Amino acid sequence: ALAAPAIAQSAPEIKWRLTSGFPKSLDTIYGGAETISKAVSDITDGKFQIQVFPSGELIPTPQALDAVQNDTVEATHTCSYYYVGKDPTFAIGTAIPFGLNARQQNAWITEGGGQQLLDEFYGQYGVVSFVAGNTGTQMGGWWRKEIKSVADLSGVKFRIAGLGGRVMAKLGAAPQQIPGSDIYPALEKGTIDAAEWVGPYDDEKLGFAQVAKYYYYPGFWEGGPAIHLFVNKAKYEALPDSYKAALKAASALANDVMMAKYDVKNVTAIRSLVGSGVQLRRYPNDVLEAAYKATFELYDELAAENANWKKVYEPWKKYREEAYQWFRVAEYTFDSFGYTMQAKG
Amino acid sequence: ALAAPAIAQSAPEIKWRLTSGFPKSLDTIYGGAETISKAVSDITDGKFQIQVFPSGELIPTPQALDAVQNDTVEATHTCSYYYVGKDPTFAIGTAIPFGLNARQQNAWITEGGGQQLLDEFYGQYGVVSFVAGNTGTQMGGWWRKEIKSVADLSGVKFRIAGLGGRVMAKLGAAPQQIPGSDIYPALEKGTIDAAEWVGPYDDEKLGFAQVAKYYYYPGFWEGGPAIHLFVNKAKYEALPDSYKAALKAASALANDVMMAKYDVKNVTAIRSLVGSGVQLRRYPNDVLEAAYKATFELYDELAAENANWKKVYEPWKKYREEAYQWFRVAEYTFDSFGYTMQAKG
């Protein structure tokens, strides 16, 4: 008579609903939530079920964080920076312009003090967070015309959101926020001049190459965007410890698998795009340098006006500065030499 | 009466022993096995226990793979390339000279077909494998004198093992294989001229800076060495599916945590080393270029004489070539621009 309740307590049947921040068509990034769901179910012999819904099926992405806070759904798997409208500090957990690459972002969050700082901030919205995916450095967008200098940005309608958009606005561009599904017709009609989306694999599926010939890099506003699993804090805390541990490990699995998928799929997609006539272009140095200057001015402005930003940004910036110094030594030289030898043929 | 046996089958008490390939003093890389052990225990409410032993306490590292194959212990957490004496193909799972960086190695194994190729090969030794850690690009070793050109390598006694040692031998050096604990006195007495170990954090603890002033980079023979969990195949297959899933997710957690720890600890250690007078030196281009040429000659020799090598190496090489093309675009340009701006001050 004692055994049954004890077992019921340690392995209860739990069903959660998770609203993804992404449509199913973005299979790699959407797949992160599926990886978590499957791993948690497999680990618990099906006792802990997390049902994944695409963005908009239950909850549109802009309302997903509120929905988790209000316990309408238990979780969302999404980009923290979709919520910069609530507070720009949400951007730091994902990526901010000229920030960290994927390894550095993982390191800062996991072992560099970032997790605690972010969870203190996210805690104001009633959620806890797990890093659960990354796309790597994104591309810099599809342009109908070449950009030769900062002057060419003046008045151009560039589909780019968040802090990247604020930096572009400082350079004279007119950032546009339109949903992914509306980008193609807007580029085709010339309603917008340029649009950034993700990277080769995701971009190729939307066919942008047919309406904008120049494919710029790098997406300097997203050097290594982390995707997060956000969970209602009370629901998380009510989980048995074993399910908490399962959720943490499953998130790490999603983190690894998503990055690996992008690092295989983009390799194929960039070859296919270039083979079909897409013109790769590096943003000119004067654009990058002006954007860099504008970026750190923006960060200082935010630090002066927003205590949340200041609290998370300052230790983040210290890690960035010191990490860059180290990564420039062994890691960067290894990459640099290998790529140079390849370019020589 | 039915419930108890069913529960016993789905969550049996299992105790495994794992021999680490590393001493406890290498806390970050040794810690990978502890991360796996803790996660698996937490996830299963303590039912699946993996006890971790430092290298040599039960089994010395060179015998660990045999010990897992023979089921003397169930698992080892180690570098596959420690077993190149059995077959050079063991090196590919960890890192081979001028190979992949950490992200690329993860991608190739996880999503690029590597896991299947490696497990077919490892299966000849009765084990299954999980990627469970990485150090990132290692440093190129501690030298008592500066190396100005390939000529300076002639006859120098360099503590370096595996395929890196075979490449160095082609360049005229005399590779030495001595255990980590013997490096310091050998460098101090001048019995050896140089020694490679890991990177700033691990190297600093052994005090090499006191006996060899020049700290070279990059460790081109280890661009992104993956650390593996190897498990006796029959023991793995006998696990309940839920424990298999737990082991997989726990390995992913160890993979993330180890990389993040190195990417935080090395940042601090390189500053400390440089602050104490260590002289950082990049290997001269003629050394790197000669090593690059010697490396790919070696790979062709191995492909001609070893069917295992050929089978794993050729698809690996294809991924490397195509991945380099993609990583050179967004990822490398993002890093490159950021590091350049930092260097400008």
Describe it.
The structure is a homodimer of 345-residue chains. Chain A is an alpha/beta fold and 345 residues long. Chain A has a domain at 3-135 and 223-265: Bacterial extracellular solute-binding protein, family 7 (D-Maltodextrin-Binding Protein, domain 2). Chain A is built from 14 helices and 11 strands. Chain A has helices at 3-10, 27-43, 61-69, 90-94, 102-111, 114-123, 162-170, 180-189, 200-206, 233-237, 241-275, 285-305, 307-327, 330-344; strands spanning 14-20, 48-53, 75-78, 127-134, 141-143, 157-159, 174-176, 194-195, 214-217, 226-232, 279-282. In chain A, the strands form 2 sheets. Chain A has a 6-stranded mixed sheet with strand order 7-6-8-5-9-11. In chain A, strands 2-1-3-10-4 form a 5-stranded mixed sheet, with helices on both faces. In chain A, strand 1, helix 2 and strand 2 form a beta-alpha-beta unit. In chain A, helix 2 runs antiparallel to helix 11, helix 6 packs antiparallel against helix 13 and helix 7 packs across helix 12 (285-305). The model of chain A is unreliable at 1-8 (pLDDT under 50). The interface between A and B is large, with 88 and 88 residues.
